[in-house]
Amino acid sequence: MREDTAKKTTTEKTPSGDELKIEGSKIEELKIEGLKIKVYPDPVLKIPATPVERFDAKLSSFVDEMHKAMLLREGVGLAAPQVGVSKKIAIITYDGVFYVLINPRLLEREGEQEGEEGCLSFPGIYAPVKRPARVKVAAQDTGGIERVYEVEGFTARAFLHEMDHLEGKLFIEYLSTLKRGMIRKKMYKRAIGEDE
Ligand SMILES: [Zn+2]
Fold first, then answer.
1. Cα–Cα distances in Å, from 37 out to 89, 114, 131, 144?
2. Residue 2 resides in a domain
3. Is 162 a catalytic residue?
4. How far, in Å, is the centroid of ligand 1 from the Cα of 60?
5. How many domains does the chain have?
6. How much is the average pLDDT of 31-53?
7. In which domain, by residue range, is 100 found?
8. Is the pLDDT of residue 186 over 50?
9. Is 156 helix (H, G, I), strand (E, B) or coil?
10. Which position has the higher pLDDT, 37 or 8?
């Protein structure tokens, strides 16, 4: 998930305590290491992810790597299939709060909102998407403890966008056939190196 706003400097702590300073436009100069983001039409993005069963140190360090990969690209959300791991793990960071959703379940949805949405797997592409305004979600944390989140507005949008990824569903599926076709065509051209 990506938010279409002016670039800004942010500092965030990863779950393991590392501090990452992200300086807006300088992000392009950073050497991006670690997890690679899969972009559409990579087939892993269309596969429903499987539940996480082991809550161990390996899981925590993977979530840490996902967090770094997301921040380095100025994302506000990232799902494990986007880094090629078909497991029910998603992270969201918004308004200074970092959420880890493992095996999330949508409990309640209410209202409607429309807003611009982007995705790290569709670089530079934004489109308006209708979503529920408020949601209640149960998810486990990296220790396997179940937590319940009640979120609204952009945070709710980000939760739903990332939870869709875990079902192999992409935000372009909410768009008109015409708009979806245009985005698909652009992404396929990029994949074979014909775009721009
Ligand atoms: Zn996405």
1. 15, 26, 25, 26
2. no
3. yes
4. 21
5. 1
6. 90
7. 9-191
8. yes
9. helix
10. 37
Which token pair is 181? 């076709």
CATH of residue 104's domain is 3.90.45.10
- Ligand 1 centroid–CA 145 distance in Å is 25
Determine the distance separating the centroid of ligand 1 and the alpha carbon of 58, expressed in angstroms.
24
List CB contacts of 21: < 8 A, sequence separation 6 or more.
9, 10, 11
3 located within any domain: no
Q: Can you tell me the distance from the alpha carbon of 15 to that of 164, in angstroms, rounded to the nearest whole number?
A: 24
**196 lies in some domain:** no
Task: Assign 47 a pLDDT band (cuts: 50, 70, 90).
Answer: very high
Kindly list the protein residues that place their beta carbon closer than 5 angstroms to ligand 1, a single-atom ion: 119
37 domain-assigned: yes
Query: In the 8-state DSSP scheme, what is residue 50?
Result: B
Q: What is the pTM of this model?
A: 0.85
Active-site choice (28, 65, 117, 162): 162
The torsion angles phi and psi of 105, rounded to 5 degrees, stand at -135, 135
Residues sharing a CB contact under 8 Å with residue 195, sequence separation 6 or more, in sequence order = 186, 189
